[in-house]
Automatic annotation (TrEMBL):
Occurrences of domain HTH lacI-type (ranges): 11-65
Protein name from the UniProt record: LacI family transcriptional regulator
SUPFAM superfamilies (alphabetical): lambda repressor-like DNA-binding domains (SSF47413), Periplasmic binding protein-like I (SSF53822)
PANTHER family in the record: HTH-TYPE TRANSCRIPTIONAL REGULATOR GALS (PTHR30146:SF109), LACI-RELATED TRANSCRIPTIONAL REPRESSOR (PTHR30146)
Keywords: DNA-binding, Transcription, Transcription regulation
């Protein structure tokens, strides 16, 4: 059971549920759909609210107002190296809200989960938002667990380690399929010695990208491309791409194609190749992920996996609005935008070829 409020924090819906001897969902129904709750249960819940001084003003207001038109988006923490993809996704999410006749309310990350949950409760039960979208979900992320426990509608961009067993809805791009596209592409261009930069066991999405790489190499018989040293753990910054590519090139059997988990790593790989006098696409192929503006910055265009960002955003908004009784887990396919970093023919012409989609 939840501990009773000690005067230093506001009572939560879970506190009310514990005191009344009912579920969190029942408390939510008393507040939002009292007509479906028996009079006896409503009386118990209201008594618990009164004893705990549980936002009586917000509860009363919620009964008077129509469903709010705002959807809250919990902004991810600031990324020290920047994240062009998530910047673009924010615009897609705003457009998806507008298309559904909703407005987007931005919420900054708080110092801890409890503070964030209190803020979310204030906004939802105060009828300021209809629900929330959260992103940058980690394997053991407490946010979806707590939002679900408190009966607050939300949809997650990404999955926790519970994946398809999670009792809440989520949507994301198919990370494994996206990397498989990149591996298949360089294989078709004749490459048989590959490397993967960006393995990260602490991220569900990055694990999926690594699994996609391993699955494609296994399917194509590229055993040496998954040998020790060919799958390299790293962050997603440009400097890591520069350093790791140099290390790979200095091995006894260097790869002829480098698959990167992020465009920033791919850009770092391009820098190293050019510093070594090698031509990206002709001598060594390089692919990135997320198809950010970085892929078209400079003379070398970077072949990159493109997520269906606008579709992902639209699915998340739909899940918040519709609140499906059975959780939906939505995987959307990715595409590959081919540029000169994997096209040897591009460098045989005066001007590199324009990008094409696969």
């Amino acid at each position: 059971m939840s501990a009773a409020p000690d005067g230093r924090r506001k009572a939560s819906m879970a506190d009310v549920a514990d005191l009344a001897g009912v579920s969190v969902m029942t408390v939510s129904n008393v507040i939002n759909r009292p007509e479906i709750v028996t009079e006896v249960t409503r009386a118990k819940v209201h008594a618990a609210m009164s004893e705990l001084r549980y936002r009586n003003n917000l509860v009363a207001r919620s009964l008077r107002l129509a469903q709010p038109r705002q959807i809250g988006y919990v902004l991810p923490a600031l990324d020290a190296v920047g994240n062009q993809y998530m910047d673009a996704f924010l615009h897609d999410l705003a457009e998806a809200c507008q298309a559904a006749d909703r407005n987007l309310t931005l919420i900054t990350q708080q110092r801890d989960t409890e503070t964030l949950m209190t803020l979310c409760e204030d906004l939802y039960f105060g009828q300021s938002v209809a629900g929330f979208v959260i992103s940058n979900v980690g394997p053991a992320d407490p946010r979806p667990v707590e939002l679900h426990r408190r009966g607050i509608p939300f949809a997650a961009y990404g999955r926790t380690d519970r994946a398809f067993d999670s009792p809440w809805s989520w949507a994301e791009g198919d990370a494994a399929q996206g990397i498989e596209l990149a591996v298949d592409h360089v294989y078709e261009r004749g490459h048989r010695e590959l490397a993967f930069i960006g393995a990260n066991p602490g991220s569900v999405t990055m694990v999926q990208r690594e699994l996609g790489y391993r699955a494609a190499c296994r399917r194509l018989g590229l055993d040496s491309s998954t040998a020790p040293g060919r799958i390299v753990r790293s962050g997603g910054d440009l400097a890591a791409g520069v350093r790791i590519t140099a290390e790979l090139l200095d091995t006894a059997t260097p790869p002829t194609a480098i698959i990167c988990k992020a465009d920033t790593l791919a850009a770092g790989a391009i820098i190293t190749l050019q510093a070594r006098g090698l031509t990206p696409g002709r001598d060594v192929a390089v692919t990135g992920y997320d198809d950010t503006p970085l892929t078209s910055f400079g003379p070398v265009g970077i072949t990159s996996v493109r997520q269906a960002s606008a579709r992902i955003a639209a699915e998340l908004v739909r899940l918040v609005i519709d609140r499906p009784e059975t959780p939906e887990h939505v995987l959307l396919p990715s595409a590959l935008t081919v540029r000169s970093s994997t096209d040897p023919a591009a460098w045989a012409e005066p001007n590199p070829k324009p990008p094409t989609d696969l």
